[in-house]
Design a protein that fits this description.
Distance between the termini: 65 Å
Oligomer: single chain
Strand order of the largest sheet: 11-18-17-14-13-12-19
Strand content: 25-35%
Radius of gyration: 28 Å
Helix content: 25-40%
Number of helices: 17
């Protein structure tokens, strides 16, 4: 009897544990799990114990049960520390004396009670954006307000707003934030100008995407003597306008990044700052934070200077403008463009010689009509004009991080938001090396540097060959994710011992933090921010959320585009395999969809061979492996799920349901089965 009692006590032990911090994840069934940041086991939380917490919220949870054998824990949320999401898309349910907002979400959450004076003109069943404004512990329903009404014809707008809200990014700025932004001076202060290095008489220009509005970096160049030049990297001085602990600063930190969707930018800071005060627009004087280098035409740096400046941009180039000058050798400031490009290419070559990994990347850009619907997709490639800006931004980022890394207080480095990138994951690298060997590529794993050189050799040897795409894609998957942290382990992919983000403070909050620390160091009063690591974690999390949101936005537009091409056949490349089918990315549009094994069942019974990243037919031996070129037909496009379904076509012979060759293949296979 005593034994049974003891076992029961062990199973339902109530340990004396104080409340711990974590993030609530709510399943579709309504059950919750609090994920603790230190990697300890998740804590189960039942819906009745959420205590007003919603999916994604940072909470404090108290463990109320723990199984001694399985170590599984159950808890109760005691406090909502911060909300991931306060704005939601959904529709209004209107009655005579009250209204409710019904959110569009697959994560269970209560409706919002909307006071009639907070409807903003919304009518029954209209789609709207609502904000959660109050939810006290004792309240049965949270209270909200309507921010905006979405018109039925604006499906694109509703979809993009839904993605942003789901990712926890506010869709608008509160009046208090806009008020503070509008109060900032538009004319540069003369006393402040006097404190800065004046670079207004030096040739300066910006190079950005053709549709950019926020120009946060500029390049200046002037000859000193012979082949000796002064090249300046000038960055918008956002920290001059956004002061610590102001409402602008709090909002910037909360968002931590701008989000770039196909048809809009959801900015980190109000447009008054991002597109006006801090945008380095042509023919305007602007405050900047600069890294100025004295170097020769070989890219050898003799000395550098970091500090506050005032500049005057002489011209605004697009990447296309500069690329045309490089290729045609004609155009405005062509000699300066040639020189900067030549130095940038030398810097680039030096980076790769030191072990930086040369993964190429392609991005898609959508041609949209007036309603935001895609009418075309263009694949963007990195050309020399892009590389020109990239190399000088990398140089500035590295130089700032190196300077801060030398500063010690009580023999300790000061807290600083480094941008780090760890070495490849050994568990992911091992199978990749075996796979690459099948194509004749050998890896030296004796040191991290040798691994990097092996990657570059493989990428160079595979260029233009059928396996290039798959090796690049799988190689990237072996890499760690870059993050912000105060622990400087270097940047493996760039082969830099010190690296940070200094060059985009309009759209990245870590850059604002870097500017503040650098300014304090230059003034001889280094900031020691004890919460810097916490800020780094938050910025890394928001960056991941933004990237996922941007991918989802691109996917939505791709699905929307191919919805108008159902039944059409396109050439593609196998981009992934699983036991239930394989993914194909179209060559022309970079649109990825799934070909299921069910759809292939008429031809053969396919099984997954993980080591070869391929599906193999049991009877025919037909293979579908990553990197293979195939023809597919678009058979379904689900906007709600952002999902494309493809059907394999043997030879891409037109838009008919089944080609003669495909029919022959299927009939032959049926005979084999008999």
């Amino acid at each position: 009897m005593s034994k049974k009692k003891k076992t029961k006590q062990q199973t339902h032990k109530s340990p004396q544990i104080i409340a711990v911090k974590g993030q609530l994840e709510v399943t579709r069934s309504g059950m919750g799990f609090v994920v603790i940041g230190d990697g300890t086991a998740d804590i189960l939380v039942r819906p009745g114990d959420f205590n007003t917490a919603l999916h994604g919220d940072t909470v404090r949870v108290k463990v109320i049960k723990e199984n001694a054998n399985t170590r599984k824990k159950e808890g109760r949320i005691t406090e909502v520390i911060s909300r991931k999401q306060t704005e939601f898309t959904g529709h209004i349910q209107l009655a005579t004396n009250f209204a409710f907002f019904i959110p569009d979400t697959d994560k269970p959450m209560p409706d919002l009670f909307i006071p009639l004076n907070k409807l903003k003109g919304a009518k029954n069943k209209e789609r709207v954006v609502a904000r959660l404004v109050q939810w006290e512990k004792g309240d049965k329903k949270p209270v909200g307000e309507i921010i905006s009404i979405m018109k039925p014809e604006d499906e694109n707008d509703a979809a993009m707003k839904g993605l942003l809200a789901e990712a926890g990014f506010p869709l608008s700025f509160d009046d208090s934030i806009l008020k503070e932004a509008s109060s900032l001076p538009t004319i540069l202060d003369k006393d402040e100008i006097a404190k800065r290095k004046d670079c207004r008489d030096i040739l300066t220009f910006t190079i950005d995407p053709v549709d950019a509005k926020d120009f946060d970096d500029a390049i200046s160049i002037r000859k000193i003597k012979n082949d000796f030049y002064e090249i300046g990297v000038h960055i918008a001085d956002v920290s001059y306008y956004v002061q610590p602990d102001s409402v602008l600063d709090e909002e910037g930190y909360k968002r931590a990044t701008s989000v770039y969707l196909p048809d809009r930018v959801n900015p980190m800071l109000p447009e008054k700052i991002s597109n006006e005060l801090c945008s380095l627009r042509p023919k305007e004087d602007k405050f900047t934070f600069s890294a100025i280098f004295q170097m020769n035409t070989k890219g050898e740096i003799k000395q550098h200077w970091l500090g506050k400046t005032v500049i005057h941009s002489d011209h605004r180039f697009s990447y296309e403008d500069v690329q045309q000058i490089i290729e045609t050798k004609e155009g405005l400031h062509k000699e300066e463009i040639f020189l900067l490009n030549d130095i940038a290419q030398r810097l680039r070559k030096q980076r790769f010689s030191k072990g930086a990994i040369n993964f190429s990347s392609q991005e898609v850009r959508f041609k949209l009509d007036e309603k935001g619907s895609p009418i075309g997709i263009v694949v963007k490639e990195s050309k020399e004009a892009h590389q020109l800006i990239e190399e000088f931004m990398l140089l500035a980022n590295k130089t700032v991080a190196e300077q801060i890394g030398k500063i010690k207080i009580n023999q300790k480095e000061i807290p600083f938001p480094y941008r780090v990138h760890d070495q490849p994951n050994e568990d992911k690298l091992a199978p990749f090396i075996i796979y690459a060997r099948k194509y004749g590529h050998k890896f030296d794993i004796s040191s991290p540097e040798k691994i990097a050189f092996s990657f570059n050799q493989m990428l160079a040897d595979a260029k233009g060959k059928p396996e290039q795409h798959v090796l690049e894609q799988l190689g990237i998957r072996t890499m760690a994710k870059a993050i912000y942290t105060t622990e400087n382990i270097g940047h493996y992919g760039l082969a830099f011992e010190h690296y940070c983000h200094f060059t985009s403070p309009i759209r990245r909050y870590p850059d604002v933090l870097v500017h503040r620390v650098l300014e304090s160091v230059l003034e001889g009063k280094p900031i020691v921010d004890k919460k810097m690591e916490e800020k780094c974690r938050h910025c890394s999390e928001r960056e991941r959320a933004a990237m996922e949101c941007e991918r989802a936005g691109n996917k939505y537009k791709q699905v929307e585009f191919l919805k108008g091409h159902i039944g059409e056949v396109f050439e593609g490349v196998v981009s992934g395999v699983a036991n239930f089918g394989f993914w194909v990315e179209t060559v022309e549009h970079k649109c990825e969809g799934l070909v299921t094994v069910v759809g292939l069942s008429d031809y053969d019974d396919f099984r997954l061979v993980e080591s070869d990243y391929c599906l193999v037919g049991r009877r025919s031996g037909r293979q579908f492996k990553m990197g293979d070129k195939v023809w597919i037909k678009v058979v379904a496009a689900n906007l709600e799920k952002r999902q494309l379904d493809y059907e394999w076509v043997i030879n891409g012979g037109g838009n008919e349901i089944e080609t003669e060759e495909q029919q022959s293949f299927r009939k032959k296979d049926k005979k084999k089965k008999k």
